[in-house]
Structure formats: structure tokens, C-alpha cells
Specification:
9 helices, Rossmann fold
Length: 302
């Protein structure tokens, strides 16, 4: 499969080949000649270098990979992490759009078909190669599909053909499991975090989400607990968020009525509100949080 990454021209130090960077033995700024040595008697009590700024300069920022990043909630998640100075890798079926609102994102994009096992393995290999010894700080399994019937309505369990059951569970449930398996080592190196995007449809009948989608999200919720239990001892935290009615381009007709009837806050959620919680779960602010699933639904299922 052809690598779709666009190379960035020039010789900016932030884009140097990985082998040209040597891991620092002490203060990384000193190791890279950023600070002139001073006599011991004149040395300050603390290093005068802004290590946070230097880490960003040297490409030592935390790294996140987000699936299904081309629109909606995934798009908001990518923007949030980019704004927080994370290095972002986007994974989706479509080529990266140059009109997306974060700069240079196209140099970190991997095209992947999450319904195809070979494509998933290709994405894993690409991501492992690109993050290298820095490791992967966070993986957000956001991609999901929810097929409708010929009239755009809900597909019930008795209506859903085998190929739809297979494709939906492959993309929504099996692919996240395979990605975490394949990226376990990079996640361990960075003491990383996994966040699975589930759904409120996974634990209660929803008027628009079909049976295949609902059961795949219920399975992803269970997988979150299983992985959290298995990976905690390796330093990897696994959690989930379950969005309710969120404003995206693919809202089903009738959503406004559902919100008015079922959501105590009487409004549709913003994708940015989901992104904020995902970022929190990937950050050190949530360092003792594992195996949880946070509803982001305005109280819809209280």
C-alpha cells in the first residue's frame, strides 16, 4: 500500500531525520549546545533554560493519534490537541484536507481503512516507525460507522444483513482492539493513554442508532474495561467517553425533538465539549483514572 504522507521541504531542525537526534544525557538544551558552559562557581542553582519551550522546539511534545479525524467529533479532538501543543497524527479513510484549520497537519496523516485488516496493520507499522523511540502518548479510537436503511432510518436487529454486522463491528469494535495490540509498545514507552469513543446507544435503545452500531459500542465499552485491567500494570491507562446528541454534519432528522424531550439541558452538545473531556483523560490531570466511561450527554440518560 502506498504511503500517502506528504513530505515537508527544507531542513528545519524540527523535521530532521530521527537518527540525527541524539538523546540527551542531561539537560537537553545543554546537550544540544544551546547554553554556553559556565564555571562551577558561577553556575546558577537551577537551569536557566525554559525546558517546556525547548521540548516543543526539539519535537519532544506529547504525541496523539486520532482515528476518524476528518470530520465531526474527530475533527474537534484533533484541533484541541493541536491547540494544546501536542504532535498529532490523523488516521482516516480519506486524504488529509489542506483546508483543515491546523497548520502542517498533512505531514502527519495516514490513510487507513479500518474495515480491512491489512490496512490496519499498515497504519500500525507506519505509526510505530514515525513515533520511533519517543513513543505514543495517546491513542483516541474515534472512528465509527452507523449504517441506515434505504430511507435513512434505523436498522433493527432483524433487518441488518450479515455484511453490515461484520463491517460495523470491524470498524467500531475490532479495529480499536487491533490498534491497541499493535501499538502497545509505543504506548508503554510513553506511559500512554487510550480513549475509546463509545456511545450512549451502547447501553440504551436509541431512536436513530441501529442494532449493529449499538452492539458494537456496547462491546467497545466492555473492551475498555478489559484493556484497562490488562494494561494498567504496563503503565497504560484506558478510558472511554460516551457522547449523546452532538452537533455534527450527520445529525438524524428528529434530533431536535429528542433533545427537547430527553435532554435536561435542552440543547445539543458541541464537538468541542467532547474534545475537552478526551484531552483531560489523556493528560496527567487524569493520571489515576482508568477503566471509566464518561457520558457527555447533557443528562440524557439520568
Amino acid at each position: 500500500m502506498e504511503d500517502k504522507t506528504m513530505e515537508k521541504p527544507g531542513v528545519c531542525p524540527a523535521h530532521q531525520a530521527e537518527e540525527e537526534r541524539q538523546p540527551p544525557a542531561e539537560c537537553p538544551a545543554h546537550a544540544h549546545g544551546k547554553v554556553e558552559p559556565v564555571p562551577a562557581e558561577e553556575a546558577p542553582n537551577s537551569c536557566p533554560v525554559d525546558h517546556t519551550a525547548f521540548a516543543g522546539e526539539q519535537g519532544l511534545r506529547p504525541i496523539v493519534a486520532v482515528t476518524g479525524a476528518s470530520r465531526g467529533i474527530g475533527h474537534a479532538i484533533v484541533r484541541k490537541f493541536y491547540d494544546e501543543n501536542w504532535e498529532v497524527f490523523t488516521l482516516s479513510r480519506t486524504p488529509f484536507s489542506e483546508v483543515c484549520p491546523w497548520a502542517e497537519g498533512y505531514v502527519r496523516h495516514i490513510e487507513v481503512d479500518l474495515s480491512d485488516a491489512r490496512s490496519i496493520q499498515y497504519a500500525i507499522d507506519q505509526l510505530c516507525e514515525r513515533v520511533g523511540q519517543k513513543g505514543l502518548t495517546a491513542l483516541v479510537n474515534n472512528a465509527g460507522i452507523s449504517p441506515k436503511d434505504s430511507k435513512g432510518g434505523r436498522l433493527g436487529a432483524m433487518q441488518t444483513p450479515l455484511e453490515i454486522w461484520r463491517d460495523v463491528h470491524m470498524v467500531n469494535f475490532i479495529a480499536p482492539a487491533v490498534l491497541v495490540q499493535g501499538l502497545k509498545q509505543p504506548l508503554m514507552r510513553a506511559a500512554g493513554s487510550v480513549v475509546n469513543i463509545t456511545s450512549i446507544a451502547g447501553f440504551r435503545i436509541h431512536p436513530f442508532a441501529g442494532a449493529a452500531y449499538a452492539t458494537s459500542k456496547a462491546a467497545l465499552s466492555a473492551l475498555t474495561r478489559e484493556m484497562a485491567h490488562e494494561l494498567a500494570a504496563l503503565g497504560i491507562r484506558v478510558n472511554a467517553v460516551a457522547p449523546g446528541e452532538i452537533m455534527t454534519a450527520i445529525l438524524s432528522p428528529g434530533t431536535d425533538e429528542v433533545v427537547e424531550r430527553e435532554v435536561p439541558m435542552r440543547r445539543i452538545g458541541d464537538p468541542k465539549e467532547v474534545a475537552e473531556v478526551v484531552h483531560f483523560l489523556c493528560s496527567q490531570a487524569a493520571s489515576y483514572v482508568i477503566g471509566t466511561e464518561i457520558n457527555i450527554d447533557g443528562g440524557q440518560h439520568l
